[in-house]
Design brief:
The protein has one helix at residues 2-19; strands spanning 29-36, 42-48, 56-57, 70-77, 81-86, 90-96, 101-102, 108-109, 111-114. By secondary structure, it is an alpha+beta fold. It is globular.
Length: 116
């Protein structure tokens, strides 16, 4: 009887573990970029521990009609970062290596996605 109860409890625990949501994977580190602020001067922003496989449109440069694209990205995360010239991960793209990837002020971007 005890063996059957133990087996039922183990099966229940296993089933419960399968139904629990898993945590989202995230790149560890910081992705920095520059953009032109409202005052016309250069500003810097960063994404810290961004989610993997999720397109991130950079909020400061999301509207192509109202802002210049961001520039000079620095990928200091543990995942490759693919930057795009348009919001929503559209347009021309370029991939920056994990940890050391960077682009000059000529590399323009409005969105990024981190992959593994």
């Amino acid at each position: 009887m005890r063996l059957r109860n133990a087996a039922v409890a183990a099966f229940g625990a296993f089933t419960l573990a399968l139904t629990l949501p898993t945590s989202a994977s995230a790149a560890t580190g910081e992705f920095r970029y520059s953009y032109v602020g409202l005052d016309g001067g250069p500003q810097q922003a960063a994404l810290v521990d961004p989610a993997d496989w999720e397109c991130i449109t950079l909020p400061e440069v999301a509207d192509p009609n109202a802002s210049e694209p961001a520039f000079s990205p620095r990928n200091r995360t543990d995942r490759p970062a693919t930057v795009f010239t348009e919001p929503g991960c559209e347009g021309a793209h370029f991939t920056l290596r994990a940890y050391t990837g960077y682009g000059s002020e000529r590399l323009k971007l409005r969105s990024v996605v981190f992959t593994d």
